[in-house]
Amino acid sequence: MVRQLEPGPGQRQHQADHHVERPRDHTPAQQAAGHRRRRVELVLRHDPHPLLLHRSVQHRWSYGSPDGTLVPGPHPEGAIVASAETHDDDEARGEDPRAARSRQRVLTAATACFLAHGYDASTVEQVAAEAGLAKRTVFNLYADKASLFRAALERSIDTAERFTGELLAHVHELAGARDLRAGLGRVAEELALTVLAGPVVPLRRLLAREGERFPDLLADYRRRAPEAVLVALASTFAALTERGRLAVASPELAAEQFAFLVMGADLDRGMLGEPPPPAERIRARAAAGVDTFWRAHRPGQAPAPDPETGPRGGSATSSTS
């Protein structure tokens, strides 16, 4: 059952988009970055049609429909939780328009510098020159290079999350697809092009290099982008298996296999510094990956044993135990 909760103590109802919001304390880094962050948690309760429930929540999350449950308190056991964090834009929060424009120029320049040179090799002087602003202007907006890096990466993660939201809407549309094989092909192509042909791979490389220094940013990106895609794929595959439209023993493993089949090798190459492949190759590899996935999991197939439980339902033996 999906319902809208009333705001509790210390919360406020945002009438425009039907969100129940809980104000959170901001870290000094977030304050220095000039962001006001809101966190909204979406709890997807068990339902006879989990895919349709996922889809209704995603529709509300992406496009402002009032459907969906917003749970600010403890989550029910077995619930699937997806969280979205948004940043108010600078002018909406009352910042001077000129400062807001300077901030966006600085963040754009900082993102380019950090992606090209990494954290250690980038300097505030380089960012100021790239932005066409005085160094003093950058320091008026951000206290130090670390604060600037956080702000630039948080904006890039926001962009990645928006791409993810658009992709998830198409994943959930598989519920009503008359031609499931074709629908999987469309999702695979969009997933591969979004990751391999855009800014995602450079962002991942940068986060991988600086993850030890900024572990919270790395964890935030994983939760809001790649992990969100895998959760959606697994939920979708589970629901389609229940309806007899797929044959999947482990939805989580099938989601990982699907993602790797449609982009894994080229993603590995990109993480090691190779330039992105042409769009034609990305589409062809994604289509070939779907062909392999469909042959293994099309209706009527006997699902392969779940490696987590073993072929007879017992615990699989771990090589590390």
Provide tags for this entry.
321 residues, DNA-binding transcription factor activity, TetR/AcrR family transcriptional regulator, two-stranded antiparallel sheet, Arc Repressor Mutant, subunit A, Tetracycline Repressor, domain 2, mainly alpha, disordered N terminus
Compact description:
Keywords: DNA-binding. The chain is mostly helical.
Quote the distance from N terminus to C terminus: 41 Å
Total domain units: 3
Task: Give the percentage of residues in beta strands.
Answer: 5-15%
Please tally the helical runs, counting DSSP H or I stretches of 4 or more residues: 12
Poorly predicted regions are 1-92, 311-321
pLDDT average, as an integer?
74
CATH topology of the largest domain: Tetracycline Repressor, domain 2
| DSSP summary, beta strand count | 4
The major sheet is characterized as: 2 strands, antiparallel
What's the SSE blueprint?
Blueprint: E1 12-14, E2 19-21, H1 28-33, E3 37-44, H2 50-63, E4 80-87, H3 97-121, H4 124-131, H5 135-141, H6 145-172, H7 180-196, H8 200-210, H9 215-224, H10 226-242, H11 251-271, H12 279-297
Describe this structure in words.
- The protein has 321 residues and is mainly alpha-helical.
- The protein has 3 domains: 1-88, no CATH class; 94-142, Arc Repressor Mutant, subunit A (Orthogonal Bundle), CATH 1.10.10; 155-302, Tetracycline Repressor, domain 2.
- Helix content is 57%, strand content 7%.
- The protein has 12 helices and 4 strands.
- The strands form 2 sheets. Strands 1-2 form a two-stranded antiparallel sheet. Strands 3-4 form a two-stranded antiparallel ribbon.
- Helix 10 packs antiparallel against helix 11.
- The longest helix is centred in the middle third of the chain and has 28 residues, at 145-172.
- It is elongated and about 65 Å long.
- The two termini are 41 Å apart.
- 32% of the residues are buried.
- The model is unreliable at 1-92 and 311-321 (pLDDT under 50).
